[in-house]
Amino acid sequence: MSDTRRRVKVYTLNEDRQWDDRGTGHVSSTYVERLKGMSLLVRAESDGSLLLESKINPNTAYQKQQDTLIVWSEAENYDLALSFQEKAGCDEIWEKICQVQGKDPSVEVTQDLIDESEEERFEEMPETSHLIDLPTCELNKLEEIADLVTSVLSSPIRREKLALALENEGYVKKLLQLFQVCENLENTEGLHHLYEIIRGILFLNKATLFEVMFSDECIMDVVGCLEYDPALAQPKRHREFLTKTAKFKEVIPITDSELRQKIHQTYRVQYIQDIILPTPSVFEENFLSTLTSFIFFNKVEIVSMLQEDEKFLSEVFAQLTDEATDDDKRRELVNFFKEFCAFSQTLQPQNRDAFFKTLAKLGILPALEIVMGMDDLQVRSAATDIFSYLVEFSPSMVREFVMQEAQQSDDDILLINVVIEQMICDTDPELGGAVQLMGLLRTLIDPENMLATANKTEKSEFLNFFYNHCMHVLTAPLLANTSEDKCEKDAVVGSNKSNTICPDNYQTAQLLALILELLTFCVEHHTYHIKNYIMNKDLLRRVLVLMNSKHTFLALCALRFMRRIIGLKDEFYNRYITKGNLFEPVINALLDNGTRYNLLNSAVIELFEFIRVEDIKSLTAHIVENFYKALESIEYVQTFKGLKTKYEQEKDRQNQKLNSVPSILRSNRFRRDARALEEDEEMWFNEDEEEEGEAVVPPIEKSKQEDDFPDSYEKFMETKKAKESEDKENLPKRTSAGGFKFTFSHSASAANGANSTNNKSVAAQTSPASSNGSSSKNTNLTTAVTAAKGTLVGLVDYPDDEEEEEEEETSPRKRPRLGS
């Protein structure tokens, strides 16, 4: 079965009139008992499975095209094609088909194609079974020929018959000789008729005629006929363009003459389809389906021939990366690759896989890294297009390359950083290139398309790499445009908007909006890494400086970033926002916007409405206590009054709980330590936030234990959330001072038989601890726990409770144990 003569690809025509590759295999013709007749069988070369089993029906019209294609229709809308590797194999199978149908193998079509709607009429008119009689090919008969060609287009049967007549008499070549005569005589009328004739012959949609018309000998005359459109005052100069303007550039000389001829032919036929022929109307769109197929199969063949010639591709890569290559040559090489990748899009998925793997093996990514950093705008643009093909094909392949590269080279020359720098330095005022690159970066950092294998997770490895090596490059323009000295003047609530220096240059604003869009995406998809980054860099404060920009779209981007963070309903973020007083710039923007009813106004109100509807208690308390006076005058929405109502209801609930502490204790004794742990973990975050420049979450790459932290921490948070929802009513609520009431006092007061007044006094002792660093809090905690020991030793026994000294070493050391 390894005989290459019988090696074929099986294609089917889909609804969009595009050919789908069904696989490669070997074809044979044998008698199939089940189908009661000779059949074509194609078995896959990979696993021997049956790709095609098709009975050779005596009445089916089979067509042979381009010496290596056999095309036919199985059912009304099911077209099939076999593309042979070798002409000899195609001829063998064609003979078998002709034998079954009793035809001479020299024919190109085994049956006359009959349109069902005309079948009955066809039977009634036996004279139509004869071929159409063509007028003699002379100058004075051109009008008659043109009328004949245009009249048959509406009837599929007559189209087929005319095509056969044209083919049998070698009529196309005779017409093209007349064209040369007409042009020499400047016979305009004749040239107009020839335009109609040649256009009509193209619409016959016949592959055998295309092969004659698009041969080297004839194609330029065909293009010449199509220049003389009667609707135009002056003929177009298509031939001049194809011969003089369009230059065939060989980056590396192509020695295979058949390949060269195919490339020339494909370019010219594509030109005829795209430029010369008018866009087909709805009624004509199927007229050119064979032309589309002709171009498609040519492209597949070109890509396959180039791909198989590894010597050619290796030479192209060598020159592309060679420093000695001059700029013009390099530009041509990159443009060749861009074109090559565009052609590859016509391939089917498995062939495209092989194509990109070949490029990867030859070193396309290191080559791109060099050319993307070049000064030439054209080269960079073409390199970006090639990079986009690679990212769309396999983001994982690109990620694997950059992570390996990071072990060998500096951050500055990493491929992703080169891409980010191209995005930042885009000179186009509309940032067209930057938008394209931002989309590619988003694909690369999207966890949705990252694989998790048995021994490693691409997600954690790549995100660790990205935040360590690339994030600082991405945020550099944002941090530079919102630096401290630029926003110091804006420290007072309600300060004059014009005092703040903000990027008023439209192009910079566009770039910052793009960067913010990417960071907003990170907030949604990279929970742990981005949280660490935002808190380390105090990023939200910097972003909110942009609320003062005169470009409303940029202010809205900044607001959208904050809205995503609040949308996560994460208490760490909430505490960061309240502690940094980060609602202030948003409320200033709302007040500065005045009574204007615009998108900014709606977006800010939606942010507060979300906090009200989702009942985010810590934020509600912070907003009401600090900003309610500035906001109470806004009455056209009930949002702010609603927040005040929620806040007051919460206060009442707290007071009622204080009065019913004993019953709470009785129902919840078992949960005391879990809460103590939660508070312990909160203190850990608070303590680190207050140490200047210290990381709130451990730096990303330090030790194995810390590497595992994100996962274990997230598991811990999920357990914590489940517990909270299980017993929401009994959880301690955040008070206005920012502390938590009775978190540590329950067990202590129960042990001492304390009444509710004592409870209040213990609560009063513990709540200030949250704002005074963790040491005093820990002492209170220790006192509470040891006081409770006599009564509670049987509930949960923690070894850390044994000694005060151990307790004072604080929670960061215990974190891994918490999440485990």
UniProtKB/TrEMBL annotation:
It comes from the Eukaryota. InterPro entries: ARM-like (IPR011989), ARM-type_fold (IPR016024), EVH1_PP4R3 (IPR055236), P4R3-like_central_dom (IPR006887), PH-like_dom_sf (IPR011993), PP4R3-like (IPR051137). Pfam families: EVH1_PP4R3 (PF22972), PP4R3 (PF04802). Residues 701-732 have a biased composition (Basic and acidic residues). Transmembrane segments: none annotated. Belongs to the SMEK family. PANTHER family: ATP SYNTHASE GAMMA-RELATED, SERINE_THREONINE-PROTEIN PHOSPHATASE 4 REGULATORY SUBUNIT 3B. This is Serine/threonine-protein phosphatase 4 regulatory subunit 3B. It comes from Mauremys mutica (yellowpond turtle).
